[in-house]
Amino acid sequence: MNEHLKFLVSRNSAPKLTSPGPDADELAQMMSAALRAPDHARLRPWRFLTVSGERREALGELLLQALLARNPDADESAQTKARNAPLRAPVVVVVICKLSEHPKVPHIEQRQSAACAAHGLLLGAEALGYSGIWRTGDVAFDRPFMTSLGLAADEEITGFVYLGTRDGKPKPLPEMNPEEFNQYW
Ligand SMILES: Cc1cc2nc3c(=O)[nH]c(=O)nc-3n(C[C@H](O)[C@H](O)[C@H](O)COP(=O)(O)O)c2cc1C
Asked: What EC number(s) has UniProt assigned to this enzyme (predicted)?
């Protein structure tokens, strides 16, 4: 297997992330990889919101408010989990899919492009020696939360990509045989 392929097959999400996180220049490099996502008609159906430093606490407040709006009876531990979620990594990038109307590019294709962009971001992070994990949860589908974050009505959350330095050992990668996933038709 060549070096490029070895890199691709060793991508490994990191649930625990710590400092340092990528700086602005490194984030821009990672985003350059994201921007090479396959993109029908070059609609660029994505944008990113980068949340780092103290702004993560402000994001945590929005997550808490969104939780309480969805579930006013949320217990203390759920509230703490929501408020502290963005603190699990030095940088959180909200990958946003911006949907537009196009005669040849249905919304599903635009969502797929944005998902590829999120993957590109993770690969870009690993290429620079960082780690990441893509997370969603109920809040990613919560329209009032999206509005509070500044998303327009035609925008959706593709995912929260947490980025930083892996804390702990990488998990063992599952053995997967490509032949089990492919048939020559
Ligand atoms: C759309 C999407 C949403 C995800 N949401 C979560 C999540 O909310 N929480 C979580 O722990 N993992 C989530 N994952 C899975 C992780 O990003 C990761 O893929 C998983 O931990 C397996 O690790 P690996 O990517 O190294 O195989 C999500 C993945 C995708 C593609």
From this structure: 1.-.-.-
Which residue CA neighbors atom 7 of ligand 1 most closely? Answer: 135
State yes or no: 135 annotated in a binding site.
yes
Residue nearest to atom 5 of ligand 1 (CA): 135
Q: How far apart, in whole angstroms, are the C-alpha atoms of residue 159 and residue 83?
A: 17
Q: Is 111 annotated as a binding residue?
A: no
Q: Which two tokens stand for residue 135?
A: 């997370």
CA-nearest residue, atom 22 of ligand 1? 13
Please choose, from the candidates 62, 49, 87, 60, the residue with its C-alpha nearest in 3D space to the C-alpha of residue 164. 87
Q: Which whole number is the average pLDDT over 84-105?
A: 98
| Domain containing residue 137: CATH number | 3.40.109.10
Number of domains in the chain: 1
Tens of pLDDT, residues 68-87? 999 999 999 999 999 999 99
Residues 43 and 98: their CA atoms lie apart, in Å, by 9
Structural domain of 130: 15-52+89-167
